[in-house]
Amino acid sequence: MSRSAFWRVFGSTFVTIFLAELGDKTQVTTLLMSAQSQAPWIVFLGAGSALITTSLLGVLLGQWLARRVSPDTLDTAAGATLLGITVWLLWDIAHP
Fold this sequence. Notes:
Blueprint lengths: L2 H19 L3 H13 L2 H29 L2 H24 L2
Helix pairs in contact: 2-3
């Protein structure tokens, strides 16, 4: 992988994950845990370790899937899954 390709993949991954995680329940939870525990660096290390572990699992699963399933099939499956979640959430809102 060339140096420019490395930075392109790294940059797009960083920005995508950073924006996706900004303000989500994980960030709110770590904020509350840090305030409650009065140990922000320990909370940071625990949360960081957990995020690294889940990211590693995602990368390993993605690598495993990429060897077995075509990218088009993965895109279709991801889209169908997100569409299904959206429909389910809308149904849940419309039928309390």
